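Can anyone check this?
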Amino acid sequence: MNTAADSTPQRPVALVTGSARRLGRAIALELAGQGWALALHHRQSEADIQALATELRAQGTPVQVLQADLAEEAQARNLAAAVVRAFGRWDAVVNNASLFEYDDAGSFSYQTLTRHLLANTAAPVVVAQRLHAHLQSRPGAQGCVVNLMDQKLWNPNPDYFSYTLSKAALESANTLLAQALAPTVRVCGVAPGVTLVSGPMSEAGFSQAHTMTPLGRSSTPQDIAQAVAFLLRAPAITGTTVLVDGGQHLRAQSRDVLFLTPQTGSR
């Protein structure tokens, strides 16, 4: 494998999971602009990830593209090792990749929960574990994990039941990992609000949902990317989650916003 280690070894290296599209892409672009070298992970979005890599390399950012199914433990562990092989160092991970499938209390199954827990909870923990192990091999090195959460953990509703459970487990893991991996690794979270069109939501429905907050606006991809970049550079912050949602979590909602706008029907 050709590595990026020789080009700018002084740059800190961040792994961004699920970076081919949407929030992951915005985070990668923001970090590149702030001087990070990037390991861009994807599962099956080859064309999109290669387009992003080409764009970033044209801007002078050292980039490696890495593929893995993070629901498979061996692949998650191999991904971590691949980052170090590619760059010779590894300083941070943004656990952005996420499974987001609909179920509710009536349709809940062991299988659906297991899929969400593997992708959304177990994988981020394993990747954080491997980052910690790598940094301990570099005397004096410190790093950071940023996990992408969801504002609905602070404003719960029973839609997307298994997804919500998996993110609740990840939020608890944030606390446990911050305790267990200190002082070598800081562990933080960012909880977006209504940021991008998801699932069957229409553009009109999204536009309405985006304003259903105390600030009259929810988060944009740039808002989330800037919050992630801030936490990666904030040496006194660990074990906490920043809610970047226009205050959406302050307004109780009985259902996911997908079902509270007239453009989207109901399940």
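Reply from J.R.: I decoded it. Residues 13-193+218-246 form a domain with the Rossmann fold fold (CATH 3.40.50.720).
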